[in-house]
Fold:
Amino acid sequence: MLVIDSSVFASVIVKDEFYEECKEYLLEDKATVDIAFAEAGNVLWKHVRMGRIAKEEVEKRVNLLKALIRSSKVYGSDELLLNSMRLAVNLGITLYDALFLSLAIQLDTRLVTTDRKLYERLPHDLKRRVVLLG
Structure:
């Protein structure tokens, strides 16, 4: 099982430059955090606001996003909050990113992301837990 972060779901929904690589990981046995709905949804909103995606596409893409995320085992952020906050404070990363990383650590698996800034902030021992796409 892999942990998939919001950036991977968002990439597939908006069909950005990482789309082909990301969609392959969504076929795997996967887990994610409940905030993926809001984070990936926000990326969709940004693309609509910028005119890259037509407003008429929103309902279809939101439904696809929900289906993709629900095809994962979804963990509540409340269950991960304390350990995630510790990671965020100690590593200097956002709590949002720490939630996904914390889940990967808890499940003893790897985190899949397109977030290069997150990857670069991690110490070497945690980088091995991350699959950086793109």
